[in-house]
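Lecture notes, unit on binding sites. The following record was shown on slide 14. It pairs a sequence with NAP.
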Amino acid sequence: MFFSKNFDFSKIPDLTGKIAIITGSNTGIGKVCALEMARQNCQIIVASRSEEKGQAAVTEIKSATGNDKVEFMKLDLLSLEAVKAFAEEFTAKFDKLHILLNNAGVMMCPYGLSKDGIEIQFATNHVAHYYLTMQLLPLLIKSGPSRIVNVSSMGHHSTSVYAPNFTDKISEKKGYNATLQYGFTKACNIMFTRELAKRLEAQGIDNVYVNCNHPGVVSSELSRHIASPKSFLDSVYNNYLAITTENGSLTQLYLATSPEVESKQIKGQYYVPYAASGWANPYSRSEKNAADLWEYTEKLLKEKVPDYQGAAI
Ligand SMILES: NC(=O)c1ccc[n+]([C@@H]2O[C@H](COP(=O)([O-])OP(=O)(O)OC[C@H]3O[C@@H](n4cnc5c(N)ncnc54)[C@H](OP(=O)(O)O)[C@@H]3O)[C@@H](O)[C@H]2O)c1
């Protein structure tokens, strides 16, 4: 809340003719992004795991904006089969994709595994979004100029003290620390962004702009796994320290929509509130770690998804 605003809703350009997928846009920061992009005539896919919550968000956004091109499509990031089904349904229905906002996330949940046996935070925050992006990448390239935004967190700084290498221990129960695992998965968002931008550049693909951001410390449902009961301090935090979801949406809306991203050739970058270039820690900026994460994720997908053909780049 102490930062200057380099971007606000009035700077979102007219998005007529653009199609966007926003994961986890039934609530929180993602829903505000969907609402404000719909207001500027973007066609929006509310990609959420709950049909009830997703449809409620669609109804709310349509009625607030008058934009009828807002629809729900089911996406459960805890199942790679479901991610695949989502991507297949999308590519069968649409021949363009201009904005992929990888926003959904889970923070500090108790230990658990996805349907594929991958730890829940790593599965949701990194692996499923990686897989989704790989499946949609050919369409994003074809539709260029296009944007990919991976929503990270300042929580990634915890990898300055807990810096896992890429071994099978990532999904193990023994030693699981919910806070450190969250930070690690958010570092993965930055490393994935940097490696993907590097690979696109190496292939001479210059019309896909991939970036990541920390949205701010935002009052949303993300803290649902943090222990209750709600204390006086929680209340001070949520009511006075944390920023609103509207303000929390600004940095990713900038990366997803601002013409400046193209005019300034912003690629592979980490942005912080409000739409300012940020400092990611050395672990997240390590080219070796990014390459290792890429290789680890590819190996994992080949194990878990029988017909996975390998990265599209
Ligand atoms: N809030 C903050 O202070 C803060 C700070 C730094 C970074 N971030 C990042 O910002 C992003 C948005 O968070 P938020 O604050 O808006 O949190 P939120 O209000 O809890 O929203 C998270 C969204 O992700 C969805 N989601 C979680 N697991 C999913 C799954 N398996 N499949 C499909 N969707 C799933 C949730 O769906 P359901 O409603 O069905 O659970 C919800 O729509 C996250 O990536 C988070 O890490 C937030």
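Take-home: The radius of gyration is 18 Å.
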